Amino acid sequence: MSSLTLRNLTKSFGKTDVIRGVSLDVEEGEFVVFVGPSGCGKSTLLRMIAGLEDVSGGDLMIGGQRMNDVQAAKRGVAMVFQSYALYPHLTVRQNMGFGLKVRKVPAADIARQVDEAAAVLKLDALLDRYPRELSGGQRQRVAIGRAIVASPEVFLFDEPLSNLDAELRVHMRAEIAALHRRLGNTMVYVTHDQIEAMTLADRIVVLRDGRVEQVGTPRELYESPANTFVAQFIGSPKMNLVDGGAVADRLSALGRPVPEGALVGLRPEHLQLVPADQAILGGRLVTSEYTGADTLLHVELADGEVLLMVHQGSDAPEPGADLSIGIDPALAHIFEQDVAAKNAA
Amino acid sequence: MAVTDTTETTARKPRAPWLTLRRREAIEGWLFVSPTLIGFLIFFLGPLIAVVFYSLTEWNLLSQKSTYVGLANYTDALRDNPDFWHVIRNSVIFAAGLVPLNMALALGLAVALCRPGKGVVFFRTVFFAPVITSAVAWAIVWKFLLQGEAGAVNQMLAGIGIDGPNWLREPNWAMFAVIVTRVIKMVGLNMILYIAALQAVPRDYEEAARLEGANSWQIFRMVTWPLLAPTTLIIMVITTIGSFKVFDHIYLMTGGGPENGTLVLAYYIYEQAFEFFNIGYAAALAIIMFVIVLALTVVQLLLRQKGSS
């Protein structure tokens, strides 16, 4: 196990800055997830930690040692690729033992370590198969097994579940979480799926345009997002943002004063249908999407903006109905800095 | 009344037309393939059958007399005529020299030129250009370069103190010279095939291997080279078949000489047919060559099937 420290890390491809000064401390044994939209630099950052991309500036430390100029193989990291990168001409056993073989480890030791990793991942019966003979989930487990055999200080995962179907993804997510509990290694995991991030992470790093927007536990990010980007990225369906002026009077009356020019964030799952005298907003229901456990309501406000709200229960109103919407004022998020950002968007 | 109407409707059920959709599509399909099919029958299958027929005859092109001789031309080639086995030996030497040299050079060039970089496109063009250069021009230039003392190659060798042989006039060196000049002409084609195969190897494999501690040679030997196996097999077979069928290069460079040192099968067939007018014998040789090429193709197919399973 090792800690991981990034100090003002930068990466440029030609004149394009991809990582623009990322600083982060990952503690020993911590499970950290990098999350962000496509092109935010999360995979590049992971590849820099792995040693597959060189560092343009700043310091990269693993276990307290500066690793900027250390070869990938000598950093004590193992990586699980999005494509799994299993060698198609080698069996599962040969794939898992590849790293030991190139390091000239005796065959008996390779066999023992592969068997141990295979037992952990329940791959024993598949050791003599070729990757093409495995299902997606099995391939994923072999890729993880190969990383385990390398006995790394830090595990790196690059969107490892994105090629799996939804059901298998949920299953493998639980397996990776269990693996982390069992091994206790430091793990850095990249995903664009915020549900994966929320369920796996000890801490989440939200990235945008090569910069860190916020670092925190899943609960911190959900309950106290630092800005509207994080607020809208974490949580599904995404948070509604309304002009403060539209709800300022009612929220102030309920004990949540809204500064002038601020934006107010309202999570769809926190909104409720209430009697008109308790409402902070009113609008007309334009669409309702029944999803089984609940119904997603699209409500058009007076200014034409559409608000999403989750309605639980089977008594969802019909489209065209005028709705009065309320919220527990403690659950409203007030953003004073992001008005320009919203207008720009 | 209504009941009667229903009965009449049932009785007048329309008969299915002769030109059903299935028939129409079949006719259209045959019409589409017919130009190729007719061409194949006239220009490929017809001559092939004619060659088989001629190979069973003693036919002198000058006297126009044709006599059925059964398998005599075949026994003549395979049992009685020592020239045939000399020619086969030359063809095998040519293939055994050309194929490994061509493939090794093609692979080396492909590895060097498969990734984008400065000058890569220029060098790819330089090495591929001979493939599309006229064989005649190529042979003429090399005949000049490989002349005895005056040739540029020997002049250069003399510059470093080596007394070069008369490349195309000495039996031991002529085969070497035609192999090397043929390799230089054709290596670009295999280089392009290897470049395409190398570019199709996902970068992740190399990166995964690098992370696991493999050096460049280990990555090539243990990851890249095995993944090139299907391409290597195809290149090996088509280059071998091509080397057994080589004619123009020999015709232009040495004419099969000196002392029949470069007399290979395709040139021998030409010689027998159009210089000595032994049409029947030449036809039998052509059929033997056809069988050799067919056998190599079957081996290729079997190896590919084995590889893909």
Features of the shown structure:
A: 345 residues; alpha+beta; Rossmann fold; six-stranded mixed β-sheet; elongated; B: 309 residues; mainly alpha; MetI-like fold; two-stranded antiparallel ribbon; flat
Task: Give the topology.
The complex is a heterodimer of chains A (345) and B (309).
Chain A: E1 4-13, E2 16-26, E3 31-35, H1 42-50, E4 57-62, E5 65-66, E6 77-80, H2 92-102, H3 107-120, H4 136-149, E7 154-158, H5 166-183, E8 186-191, H6 194-200, E9 203-208, E10 211-216, H7 218-223, H8 228-233, E11 240-243, H9 244-253, E12 263-266, E13 272-273, E14 281-290, E15 294-301, E16 306-312, E17 322-326, E18 333-335, H10 339-344
Parallel strand pairs in A: 3-8, 3-9, 6-7, 7-8
Antiparallel strand pairs in A: 1-2, 1-4, 4-5, 9-10, 11-12, 12-18, 13-17, 14-15, 14-17, 15-16
Chain B: H1 2-11, H2 21-54, E1 57-60, E2 65-68, H3 72-80, H4 82-113, H5 120-128, H6 135-145, H7 152-159, H8 171-200, H9 203-211, H10 216-227, H11 229-244, H12 248-253, H13 265-274, H14 279-308
Antiparallel strand pairs in B: 1-2
Query: What proportion of the residues of chain A form beta strands (DSSP E)?
Result: 25-35%
CATH architecture of the largest domain in chain A: 3-Layer(aba) Sandwich
CATH class of the largest domain in chain B: Mainly Alpha
The ordered H/E elements of chain A are: EEEHEEEHHHEHEHEEHHEHEEEEEEEH
**Main pleated sheet of chain B:** 2 strands, antiparallel
Instruction: Give the class of chain A from helix and strand content and strand pairing.
Output: alpha+beta
Distance between the termini of chain A: 42 Å
**Shape call of chain A:** elongated
In CATH terms, the superfamily of the largest domain in chain B is MetI-like
Mean pLDDT of chain A: 91
- Radius of gyration of chain A, Cα only, in angstroms? 24 Å
Tally of individual helices of chain A: 10
Would you mind describing this structure in some detail?
The complex is a heterodimer of chains A (345) and B (309). Chain A is α+β, with helices and mostly antiparallel strands and 345 residues long. Chain A folds into two domains: 4-233, Rossmann fold, CATH 3.40.50.300; 240-344, Nucleic acid-binding proteins (OB fold (Dihydrolipoamide Acetyltransferase, E2P)), CATH 2.40.50.140. Chain A has helices at residues 42-50, 92-102, 107-120, 136-149, 166-183, 194-200, 218-223, 228-233, 244-253, 339-344, and strands at 4-13, 16-26, 31-35, 57-62, 65-66, 77-80, 154-158, 186-191, 203-208, 211-216, 240-243, 263-266, 272-273, 281-290, 294-301, 306-312, 322-326, 333-335. Chain A has a six-stranded mixed beta sheet with strand order 6-7-8-3-9-10, with helices on both faces. In chain A, strands 13-17-14-15-16 form a five-stranded antiparallel beta sheet, with no helix packed on it. A four-stranded antiparallel beta sheet of chain A has the order 2-1-4-5, covered by helices on one side. In chain A, a hairpin with a 3-residue loop joins strand 14 (281-290) and strand 15 (294-301). In chain A, helix 2 packs parallel to helix 4. Chain B contains 14 helices and two strands; from the N terminus they run ααββαααααααααααα. Chain B folds into two domains: 15-68, no CATH class; 74-308, MetI-like (MetI-like fold, Orthogonal Bundle). In chain B, strand 1 and strand 2 form a beta hairpin. Chain B starts with a helix and ends with a helix. Chain B is 73% helix and 3% strand. Chain B has 309 residues and is mainly α.
